[in-house]
Amino acid sequence: MTHSTASEAAKAVVRRNTEEVQGGGNFDLFEELFADDFLDHTPQPNCSPDKDGARGLYHALRAAFPDFHADIHWQAADGDLVTTYKTYHGTHEGTFLGIPATGRKIRFETVDAMRVRDGKITEHWGVANLFSLMQQLGALPAGANGA
Q: Where is the signal peptide (predicted)?
C-alpha cells in the first residue's frame, strides 16, 4: 500500500468514526474501529485514557445530545496519522459534565489527530472548545474570557 493510499484509508476510518459512531450512535462499529489497546493522550474530564474511556465519552455525548453530529470541515493525513477539524452540533437534552438538560442547541469546534493502524484507531490527541460549550450551556457567563 502506498503512503497516499494508506493516508486515504486512515482518513476513511476516522470519518466513519465521526459520522457513524459519534453522529449515528453505532457502537457495534465503535468496537470494530477502536483497537483494544487504544490510548487517548488528551482524555476529556472524568474519562480514562483508554478504549473504555472513549466509549464512555461517546455514550455520555449521545445521552446528553441525542442528535449529536459533526460537520467535518477538512481532514489531512500523513501516513497513519489523521488530523480533522470539525464542528459538533446537538441539542442538550440530558446531563453533561454535571449540567442538567437545558434544551439549548450547541455547537463547538474540535481539532483532533488519530493514528490508524491496520484499520483501527490506536491513538488520539485533541483539543475541543469546551469553554464555548460551557458558555452555551449557561455554566459560564457569555462574556467570560477566562482572563
A: none
The DSSP 8-state label assigned to residue 27 in this structure reads H
Q: In whole angstroms, give the CA distance from residue 143 to residue 43.
A: 27
Q: How far apart are CA 116 and CA 82, in angstroms?
A: 8
- Please give the Cα distance from 96 to 101 (Å, whole number): 8
pLDDT given at position 46: 87
pLDDT digits (tens, 9 = 90+) for 49-92: 999 999 999 999 999 999 999 999 999 999 999 999 999 999 99
Cell representation of residue 116 = 490508524
Name the DSSP letter for residue 43.
P
Q: CATH classification of 3-136 is 1.10.10.10, yes or no?
A: no
Joined grid coordinates for residue 70: 459533526
Of 138, 133, 141, nearest in space to 44 by CA: 133
